[in-house]
C-alpha cells in the first residue's frame, strides 16, 4: 500500500465517532484535523458520512460503512486515497466519550437548534468543546494537561503510535491553540472539482485562499 508523503510540519489526525445505535460499527462523524506546526491554528474538515467514496478493495461505498469493512486501517487508507493527505494519527470515540470530555472542562454551550445540517452541528459542537478546553485553563500547566490527557485516553481510542506520554505532551502544547484560528470546512465530496481544490489547499496549507475563492 503506497501512502502519501509525510509532511515535515504539523500533524494530521483522522477523527471518527461511532454510531450510538446498539451493535453498530458505522461511523457517524468523520473529521480530518490538520494542526499547524506551531500548535496555534488548525483546520477541521468534516467528511459527510453519507458521501459515496472509492474504498480500496471494496468498490464504492458510503463513508460511514468503511470501518465496518476493515476497521481503522481501512478508514485511514480510504481517506488517504481520497485526499492525497498523509494521516499521522487515528482516533475514535462515541457520544459518551464526547460528553465526558465536555464534562471535565465544565460543559459546553448547546448547539443552536436552528442548525439542521448534521455536519454543521458536529462542527459547532467541536468548536464549542475546543473553545471551552482552551478558555478553561485545563491545558495551562503540565499537571492539568496530564490529567486531561488521562480523561481523554479513557474515552478515546488512539492508534498504537500515539503513546500516553505523547498524548500528554500534545495536550500541553495545545494551550497555544487559538479557538478563533480553527477553521471548519465541510468537504464537498459530491463535487469532484471543488473537493480536489480543497484537498490541494489543505496539502499546501492554503485553506484560507480556498475559502476566499470557493463559494460555500
| Number of structurally distinct domains | 1
CATH topology: Aminopeptidase
Shape annotation:
globular
What is the element string, with H for helices and E for strands? EEEEEHEHHHEHEHH
- Average predicted confidence as pLDDT: 87
Say which CATH homologous superfamily is assigned: LCP protein
| CATH class category name | Alpha Beta
| Biggest pleated-sheet summary | 6 strands, mixed
CATH architecture call? 3-Layer(aba) Sandwich
Q: Helix proportion of residues, in percent?
A: 40-55%
Number of DSSP E strands = 8
End-to-end separation in angstroms reads: 34 Å
Biggest sheet, spatial arrangement of strands? 7-6-1-2-3-8
Structural class designation: alpha/beta
Radius of gyration: 17 Å
The number of helical segments is: 7
As a percent range, the share of strand residues is 15-25%
Uncertain segments are none
Protein name: Cell envelope-related transcriptional attenuator domain-containing protein
Organism: Lentzea alba
Domain Cell envelope-related transcriptional attenuator: 26-109
Family: Belongs to the LytR/CpsA/Psr (LCP) family.
Task: Detail the topology: elements first, then pairings.
Layout: E1 11-18, E2 27-35, E3 42-46, E4 52-55, E5 59-62, H1 66-83, E6 89-93, H2 95-104, H3 118-136, H4 142-155, E7 157-158, H5 164-173, E8 182-186, H6 192-203, H7 207-213
Parallel strand pairs: 1-6, 3-8
Antiparallel strand pairs: 1-2, 2-3, 4-5, 6-7
Helix pairs in contact: 2-4, 4-5, 6-7
